[in-house]
Design a protein that fits this description.
Belongs to the UFL1 family. The chain has about 775 residues and is mainly alpha-helical. It is built from 32 helices and 17 strands. It has six domains: about 1-45, no CATH class; about 120-245, no CATH class; about 265-350, no CATH class; about 365-490, no CATH class; about 520-615, no CATH class; about 620-780, no CATH class.
Length: about 775
């Protein structure tokens, strides 16, 4: 009864609560705030779902994770748990880690969780596959079950002899097989390889017999190691070859017999017999006979061949033969490289021999070859002594540096090695201007003397003889040059004295002409300076450079025009002592002022290589030079018949008479000089000169017209005056302007008109003769 009373009491209490006022009920918001506050006070720990509508405790989450793993047969992906439980992946990972840490039946692999029950099922399935196929590959199992290889390997190793009835391959090939399968495999291989009598490629056997490659190789190695098979495996992978022991024995017997009978072994022949590394094979096979064998590039030779070579070399020395080609003694398979290597090994340390590739010669033969060139040395040294002064200075300087004359001996004991016999100077040394004979020419001379000599050997000897022959040639040339130098000393002084006299004469006139230029101004002065630079200054420069070039035995063109074109190149060939000064003189010829040339030319003359002293003119000498020059002009004027040239000479004489200065002027500038003379001459005298100039211009125009019509030959007057046909009108215009100015001046002063047009009577030539007579009387009657 008491129980029923209790039930009724509780029922009444429930009814009272249900009928009570809602003022004591909590809203959803209040509940959330209370939960949040409890969480902040760390009184409870809750995990929210990804949508935030629910929360769960960690213990319950781990319980649900266990349930899901069991529901999926002991294996599930972690990402799948997150989707099922609707909880953040970080909470899932933390729950999985807690389960694995405290429960050994669970195991975590990358991205998944696995139980021990799943591993048992996995091993059971693997065992069924193994019994069915006889072998399985762990890598294939990893792909089949989508599990890491290390996990599959660990499961298999832990389950061997319990859940899995098989064994793993000890070679680490990752094969799992049954004992019965291995026994059958071993038996098949033993029978297959026991029947072989010659080398057989292993890859072909694997493919044909459908063997598992990894198990094939591991089993074959075990059979060979245990002695069940007699043979060996050479190479790896697709190049692996099985060589039976019986074949190796026959092979060794053939090699031994061939070496004993022929004294050598060819590497290619051993390769054709199946020996992959012939040199290694020979060293291993004959390790006790290494002192009797010599390994070359293409073959190995024995002591019998070496003894034969040494005997032939000694016969060559005794019989004083010129040389021996070692290839004639070596076995036929040997190459030139083998012969060269053999000679280097046998005779490289013997100084009495010269080695050139496959040819060996005694050093006496090389020294005897020097005598072939004795007459050629004397002939060319005599020619050098007669033609090359620069060579004389060069060898003299080298002799001083070396402490005396260079000997004419050989090129060392072992010139063939290219080291001890090497001279101090190379063939391409630019400091030596004269080469006795090129190496190619030396080789040709040797081949002419010894016709059977190989080309390569002749070139080697030429390389050895080049420096000794050059030194003998230089020594012989020094001796001849010393004798010639004594005879040349006198002629050199005479040549220098003549140069001094010629340069001084030109120099005196240059300085006087330079004073005459100072009378003019502006463009006329510049034009006269340039003309003086292109004529007198150029002549001075050419004469001095020819002298210097001859002193240094530098060939120069005889023609003056060609010399002017080559002058810059010539200056570049001069020695350092004068090159810079000569370049300055050459450059000054292109300037506008004569003063630049004067200073640079004086500096060049003062050098030791020239030794020319240019003396300054005093008043007395200057007067005498002017008198002589005027007399020369008058003498030329007396004999001159050409009107244009006569005008040129008259103008120069009048200029000197009225200014006291000499002038060097081109024909095209004569009108400007005449214009200057207007202010220095009387009206009547200038009228005669001006009229003659007009007649000359008319005569030149007429001559030009006749030439254009094909009625005359080329006019020499034009070249003498250097007047271009284009300048005729310019000169006529200049004359007309002069006439107008003089006429105006004459009218103003009441004087006689100047520069009237030529008289109508008589031809131009007759008028020219008349006026020329008047001008000559005027010039010859001038006071000195």
């Amino acid at each position: 009864m008491s129980d029923w009373n209790e039930v009724r009491r509780l029922q009444a209490e429930l009814e009272r609560v249900q009928s009570a006022s809602t003022a004591f009920r909590l809203s959803e918001v209040n509940c959330v705030e209370i939960v949040k506050k409890l969480t902040e006070l760390k009184l409870i720990s809750l995990l929210y779902t990804t949508d935030g509508k629910e929360f769960i405790v960690q213990e319950h989450l781990e319980k649900e994770i266990r349930n899901e793993i069991e529901a999926n047969k002991g294996r599930i992906e972690v990402i799948e748990l997150q989707q099922i439980l609707n909880v953040d992946i970080n909470h899932i990972n933390r729950g999985v880690d807690n389960i694995v840490r405290y429960d050994e039946s669970f195991e975590r692999i990358p991205g998944e969780v696995i139980t021990s029950s799943y591993k048992v099922a996995l091993c059971t399935e693997i065992n069924e596959m193994l019994l069915q196929n006889g072998f399985v590959s762990l890598s294939d199992l990893s792909s089949t079950f989508s599990l890491p290889l290390y996990f599959i390997t660990k499961c298999v190793e832990d389950s061997l002899s319990t859940l899995i009835n098989g064994q793993l391959d000890k070679s680490g090939s990752g094969l799992l097989y049954t004992e019965s399968y291995v026994s059958r495999h071993r038996s098949r291989l033993r029978g297959l390889f026991s029947a072989m009598t010659q080398p057989t490629p292993i890859p072909a056997l694997v493919t044909e017999g459908k063997y598992h490659e990894r198990l094939f190789h591991s089993t074959l190695n075990e059979l060979i190691s245990s002695g069940d098979l007699s043979g060996s495996v050479h190479g790896r992978g697709m190049r692996a070859i099985f060589i039976p022991a019986v074949y190796s024995q026959m092979q060794n017997q053939w090699v031994d017999r061939f070496l004993d009978d022929n004294g050598y072994l060819e590497y290619d022949a051993l390769v054709r017999m199946g020996i992959e590394s012939p040199q290694v094979y020979i060293k291993t096979r004959y390790k006790d006979r290494t002192g009797d064998l010599m390994m070359l590039k293409s073959c190995c030779i024995g002591q019998s061949v070496i003894s034969e070579i040494e005997a032939n070399v000694e016969d060559t020395v005794v019989s004083q033969s010129q040389w021996i080609d070692i290839m004639s003694v070596l076995p036929s398979p040997c190459t030139d490289e083998d012969g060269e290597l053999l000679l280097q090994r046998l005779y490289s340390n013997e100084e009495r021999f010269l080695i050139s590739e496959t040819i060996l010669s005694h050093q006496d033969f090389v020294r005897n070859c020097l005598d072939i060139f004795k007459s050629l040395i004397e002939e060319k040294a005599a020619k050098a002594a007669a033609t090359s002064g620069s060579f004389l200075r060069q060898v003299s300087q080298e002799s001083k540096k070396d402490g005396g004359a260079v000997g004419g001996g050989g090129g060392g004991k072992k010139g063939g090695k290219g080291k001890k016999g090497k001279a101090k100077r190379d063939e391409g040394d630019d400091s030596w201007e004269i080469i006795f004979m090129s190496k190619e020419k030396i080789a040709e001379t040797i081949l002419e003397k010894f016709e059977q000599t190989p080309q390569s050997f002749a070139e080697t000897i030429s390389n050895l003889l080049y420096r000794p022959l050059q030194e003998r040639f230089e020594s012989e040339a020094r001796s001849m040059l010393a004798q010639r130098a004594e005879g040349e000393a006198g002629s050199q002084r005479k040549r220098h004295s003549e140069l001094q006299e010629r340069l001084q004469q030109l120099w005196n006139r240059l300085r006087l002409f330079e004073k005459g230029i100072e009378v003019f101004e502006g463009d006329t002065k510049v034009q006269l300076s340039k003309y003086l630079l292109h004529t007198i200054c150029t002549d001075l420069t050419n004469q001095l450079l020819r002298y210097i070039a001859q002193d240094y035995k530098i060939t120069v063109p005889e023609d003056e025009g060609a010399f002017n074109k080559e002058r810059t190149k010539l200056v570049g060939k001069l020695p350092d002592a004068v090159r810079k000064l000569a370049q300055a003189v050459n450059s000054s010829l292109s300037e506008k002022e004569v003063a630049v040339f004067v200073s640079s030319f004086e500096a060049l003359c003062d050098t030791e290589s020239c030794g020319v002293m240019l003396k300054k003119l005093d008043k007395k000498k200057e007067k005498q030079v002017i008198i002589n020059h005027v007399e020369e002009l008058k003498a030329n004027l007396k004999d001159e018949q050409d009107p244009a040239m006569s005008l040129h000479l008259v103008t120069l004489l009048l200029f000197q008479a009225h200014t006291g200065c000499l002038l060097h002027v081109p024909g095209r500038l004569i009108p400007r000089v005449i214009s200057l003379l207007r202010s220095h001459m009387t009206s009547n005298d200038f009228a005669i000169l001006d009229t003659y100039q007009s007649l000359v211009v008319l005569d030149l125009k007429k001559s030009t017209a006749s030439q254009s019509e094909g009625e005359g030959d080329e006019n020499e007057d034009k070249s003498k005056l250097e007047i271009d046909s284009n300048l005729f009108e310019e000169e006529a215009e200049s004359i007309d302007q002069s006439k107008e100015k003089v006429s105006e001046s004459s009218d103003d002063k009441g004087g006689v008109p100047v520069g009237d047009a030529p008289a109508a009577g008589g031809s131009i030539r007759e008028q020219l003769d008349l006026k020329m007579g008047q001008l000559k009387d005027l010039v010859f009657n001038l006071k000195k």
